[in-house]
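The material for today's practical consists of a large collection of protein records. An example says more than a description, so a record of this kind follows:
***
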Amino acid sequence: MSRLPDLLAAVTDGRGPGPFALVRREGADHLDLFTGTLRVADRLADIPLPASGAGPHTLALVPYRQVTERGFACVDDGTPLECLVVDAAERIGTAEALAALPADPLVATDAAFDSTDGEYAATVARVLAEEIGRGEGANFVIHRTLTARAQGTPLRAALTALRRLLTRERGAYWTFLVHTGTRTLVGASPERHVSVDDGLVMMNPISGTFRHTGATADRAALLRFLHDPKEVEELYMVLDEELKMMARVAEHGGQVVGPYLKEMAHLTHTEYLLAGRSSRDVREVLRETMFAPTVTGSPMENACRVIARHERTGRGHYAGVLALLGRDDAGRQTLDAPILIRTAEFAPTGEVRVKVGATLVRHSTPAGEVAETHAKAAGVLAALGLGPDAPAAGPDPAVRLADDPEVRATLAARNEPLARFWLDQRPPGSTVLPGLAGRRALIVDAEDTFTAMLAHQLTALGLTVEVRPWQQPGPLDLHDLVVVGPGPGDPGGDEPKTEALRTLLTGLLTAGRPTLAVCLGHQVLAGLLGLPLHRRASPYQGVQRRIRLFGTTRRVGFYSTFTALAGTDRLPSRYGPVEVARDDTDTDGAVHALRGPGFAGVQFHPESVLSPDGLAVLADLLGHLLARPERTLATHHPTERGVTDRG
């Protein structure tokens, strides 16, 4: 017999029901009821996960402040990492649960955001100008908090809100209520952050928000949304950022599947699915993927700094995850972790907090991002009785625009400009170049984990690759190639990172050690070669372009605000003659790439999903850097080095 009636009776009678959780996962016709004891952990590695026993073991509420485990900045509000150690798990049919959950009218009053629309719009404008406009990153998520007061017993009000979400929301990855005894979270999160099952790691980057104006989404308006460059680029950018995470936790990187529509009651999103194999402990997977770029920004480490600079308060659980850890019947670890968004937190005092954020990119407008925060709050506000209800959500909505042929074709067309390296399965060894097997490369990470994706591509070409942080590049003499990687920041500044990269590159150039510099590394290299550095009037964040690269047309992706300038295709330097690939549409001569005796630099990201010719570019550059040709650059052409053009 279900324990739910007894638990609900305890709530009604004012008796403490103890810690518990009710969860309906996407596609399920039942809810899982978890009960047990509560423990507080300091680190993700401390989350309890017994060595044996099948089934769910622990439900962890991972707050945003846990990102400090990776050394990242945050406004630390002290929210604990709480773990519900599952003593009993029970499945309850959805109909049975709905019949048992309270259907009282839910009344919430005094609703207001902690910042006015005008204040939030001003924050958006500052981030666009001071952060994206100055090369600090490609996108950032800044949150605001709506507070209200629930009438009646807070836990009963939360249970009522859960029932309303179960009947009125649709398309959620998890619809849930978690009660710890001191806090209650209830929500309908659309987004899986990460899951692990039988060693398969999966992530679901979601971005782009289409707001419904009626009972169902308007087809014509949806198609306009799907063609909107801002929405397209926003999804590409978070796809790149989550590929970086997958590249860190999956042995062979991640494969991209999609895109798809995520249709909910009040809005529709676009999403991709990423999959890759991993043998890591699931708690380590959680740590290495803290937290989703869809709720932080990119590059991740600097996004956390930007958030700390511009947000007034700590995030609590917003942007964290709700993580269910366990084991399957064969004893293998399992993980299922939705992002804690579209979630309300009920305090024992009756105060309710709903945190929402908007993704700010170079195309953003303050008014548009203000509207997005209201749209994202709509589903939870409706459950609290503070907004209009959507029509009741049945198992199959009357209209699924994802089934429309033109919508499907439009979504499929989004993959046409992307790098097949990340979309296709490849037979092992199919991209290895003769002469590279067994040679070693060191990648120096300048705080952008694009380096993890770059490592997978160089490995696919045959190199053995190691990645080290810029603070500890270590000995270089054991490597055939040193890659000075990308990162945020001003290449002409005097920050410790920039100075360290200058010192590193100067030593490499002086020693004649084969060197490849990417993005920030390329900008610092260009400065050492005497080229002026320039901040673009319009940031190149998430921009794909066709460029002429040393005689070959390439399609590549840029994430940059600064660029080097050159007035000629060839120039002398103290390290030998330099050949420059310049923008032929730019009167100032923005430098896309350069190469000289034993060194090369590229402003774009060959490893990005936006670089369909990226692997061919790397193959060509490795031919230049590692073949150690005796001829001068004046006689060098890509075809003469025997490097196959895989573009």
